[in-house]
Amino acid sequence: MANSLPVLSLPNIVTISRIALVPVFAVVYLVTDDYHWIAALLFAAAAFTDWLDGYLARKLEQVTPFGAFLDPVADKLIVVTALVLLIGNHANLWMTLPGVIIVGREIVISALREWMAEMNRRGLVSVSWVGRLKTTVQMVAIIVLLANPPVMRPWAMLGLVLLYAAVLLTIWSMINYGRAAWPTLKDGLREGNA
C-alpha cells in the first residue's frame, strides 16, 4: 500500500540525490571556465534522475505524497539554479529574457497548482505532454549552454535556439494550464466578491 511506504523509498532517495547535485554542479560551474563541461555532465545526471525517480516510483509502486511534493521542488531548484548561473555568466538580454520567462512560469504554475489543490481540483492542472516536451527541450538547452563558453559559437547558438524553443513551449503549456484552471479561478473570484 502506497501510504505505508517509508519516506525514504528508492524513488525519494533518487529525488534527494538530484537536490544534492544542485550545489555541486553550481560550485563546479563557478570555480573555473575550464570545467564547465563537468558542470554540464552533473546537470545532465540530475536531469536523468528526474525521469528515473518517476519511473521507479511507478514501476516499484512506491508513489508517495512526499515524493509527489519533492519531485517538482527538485526540478525547479536545479533548473532555476542553472538559469541563474547562465544569466550571470552570459550577462546579456538574450539569456536573461528566456530565463525570466521560464522562472516566472514556474512560479505562476506552482502557485496555480497549490491553489487548485486547495480547491480539490489539482488533477485539472496535471503535467501534460506539452509540459513534458518543454522540460526535455529545456534540459537539453541548459546542458548545451552550461557546457559551452558564453560566446556565440555554433554549439552555444544551438543551446540558445533550444532555450527559446523551450520558452515557446513554456508559454504554450502555461496557456493550457490557465485554460484548464479558468473555470475554477472564475468560481474563486465569484466567491471572493460574494
Describe the structure.
The protein has 194 residues and is mainly alpha-helical. Helix content is 81%, strand content 0%. The longest helix is centred in the C-terminal third of the chain and has 40 residues. The radius of gyration is 18 Å and the shape is globular. The termini are far apart. The model has no long low-confidence stretch (mean pLDDT 85).
Quick overview:
By secondary structure, this protein is an all-alpha fold.
Tag the structure with descriptive keywords.
single chain, mainly alpha, 194 residues, globular, 81% helix
Radius of gyration: 18 Å
- SSE string, helices as H and strands as E: HHHHHH
> Which structural class best describes the helix and strand composition?
mainly alpha
Shape: globular
Distance between the termini: 42 Å
Fold blueprint:
Elements: H1 10-31, H2 36-59, H3 65-90, H4 93-118, H5 129-147, H6 154-193
Helix pairs in contact: 1-2, 1-3, 2-3, 2-5, 3-4, 3-5, 4-6, 5-6
